[in-house]
């Protein structure tokens, strides 16, 4: 085996470092990756469709406020109005939280295009959430009956929108957009699922006894939570995939999205539901206590509904996270996984896996001289 020109052991001429973000090896230089994704340059991909998402979330909040107003206005007595307000409060708070996040994201994304301005982005997102909260509170004050119940709903809704705007101030807009879109889809599904509750009650054996009703209600709640978690996970994965592909087409220097992004996005809707429950129990405590004091049955109903909302949030959190992670994992090819695993050692070897020959200072092979 000699070091003949063209032979298998001939020294190869020096090659200029590649600048292709797809073909470059990871860890060799900033802006190079090995699996074909966008090159990490410290800048996260932007959220696509942020304006459309903001319009949909604001429309959903308006629809929830209108339906709550219609329900309260149809009540024939003040006691019934208080009970209906307590039942409608969770839906309004969840919608306000998502609307604040979506509108804050749409307002903060243009700031990111002009550079990494985290403080300015956060301030703009919070300001947008504040505007959403003030608009919702004003609508409640003008359209609802002016009393303590109205002020509680208005104040808690405004607080939820501001908190949602603060969440939208995070640096990675794509993850915020995925969480907001998946949470919005989950809320729409929960409302639409009400059509299937009665048939499912009969399917799960609801009868005349109290035990059968409780058992059937438990199974219906679990089914709803499971389906909501699946929807949240699929929507989060779809949004992040859209953001990644769009960023790769427009700007190859934008950093790619790894598995933690999909994990957070899938779990995000469940976290928002749990956060909404915290806001309800803190800001809407007076309304919940007032409704629970109406009768023993109302007290049991409010406690049961609160526990059910917490369980639903936990189910959506874990099922959504697992769904997004599993779906993302199925998109990884075995070749990409092997390349990622062998970057540390195999990348320095010869194409056939053998160790490279030592080279001299001039780049030629030391053997055969």
Describe this structure in words.
The protein is an all-alpha fold. It contains 11 helices and no strands. It starts with 49 loop residues before the first helix and ends in a 28-residue tail after the last helix. The relative contact order is 0.13.
C-alpha-based Rg, rounded: 27 Å
Low-confidence stretches: 1-42, 343-369
Helix content: 55-70%
Distance between the termini: 12 Å
Largest sheet: none
State the total count of DSSP E strands. 0
Number of helices: 11
The fraction of residues assigned to DSSP E strands is under 5%
Structural class: mainly alpha
Mean pLDDT: 77
Shape: flat
Write a concise synopsis of the structure shown.
Helices cover 68% and strands 0% of the residues. The chain is an all-alpha fold and 369 residues long. The model is unreliable at 1-42 and 343-369 (pLDDT under 50).
Characteristic terms for this protein:
369 residues, mainly alpha, 11 helices
Question: Topology, pairings included?
Answer:
Elements: H1 50-73, H2 78-112, H3 118-143, H4 148-167, H5 173-192, H6 194-203, H7 210-250, H8 259-283, H9 285-292, H10 296-329, H11 334-341
Helix pairs in contact: 1-2, 1-3, 1-5, 2-3, 2-4, 2-5, 2-8, 2-9, 3-4, 4-8, 5-7, 5-8, 6-7, 7-8, 7-10, 8-10, 9-10
């Amino acid at each position: 085996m000699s070091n003949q020109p063209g032979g298998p052991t001939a020294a190869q001429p020096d090659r200029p470092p590649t600048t292709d973000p797809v073909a470059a090896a990871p860890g060799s230089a900033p802006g190079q990756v090995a699996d074909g994704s966008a090159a990490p340059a410290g800048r996260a991909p932007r959220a696509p469709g942020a304006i459309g998402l903001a319009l949909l979330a604001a429309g959903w909040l308006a629809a929830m406020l209108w339906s709550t107003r219609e329900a309260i206005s149809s009540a024939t007595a003040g006691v019934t109005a208080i009970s209906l307000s307590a039942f409608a409060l969770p839906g309004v708070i969840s919608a306000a939280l998502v609307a604040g996040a979506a509108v804050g994201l749409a307002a903060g994304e243009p700031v990111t295009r002009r550079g990494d301005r985290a403080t300015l982005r956060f301030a703009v997102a919070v300001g947008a959430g504040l505007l959403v909260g003030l608009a919702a509170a004003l609508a409640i004050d003008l359209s609802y009956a002016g009393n303590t119940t109205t002020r509680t709903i208005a104040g808690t809704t405004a607080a939820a929108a501001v908190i949602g705007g603060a969440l939208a101030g995070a640096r990675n807009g794509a993850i915020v957009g995925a969480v907001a879109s998946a949470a919005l889809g989950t809320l729409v599904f929960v409302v639409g699922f009400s059509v299937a509750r009665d048939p499912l009650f009969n399917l799960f054996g609801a009868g005349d006894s109290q035990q059968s009703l409780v058992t059937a209600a438990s199974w219906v709640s679990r089914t709803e939570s499971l389906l909501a978690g699946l929807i949240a996970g699929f929507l989060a994965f779809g949004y992040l995939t859209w953001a990644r592909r769009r960023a790769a087409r427009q700007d190859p220097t934008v950093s790619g999205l790894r598995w933690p992004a999909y994990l957070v996005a899938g779990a995000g809707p469940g976290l928002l539901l749990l956060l909404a429950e915290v806001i309800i129990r803190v800001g809407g405590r007076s309304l919940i206590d007032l409704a629970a004091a109406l009768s023993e049955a109302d007290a049991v109903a409010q406690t049961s509904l609160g526990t059910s909302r917490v369980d639903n949030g936990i189910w959506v959190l874990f099922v959504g996270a697992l769904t997004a992670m599993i779906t993302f994992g199925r998109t990884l090819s075995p070749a990409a996984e092997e390349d990622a695993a062998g970057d540390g050692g195999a990348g320095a070897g010869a194409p056939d896996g053998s160790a490279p020959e030592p080279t001299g200072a001039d780049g030629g092979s030391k053997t055969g001289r």
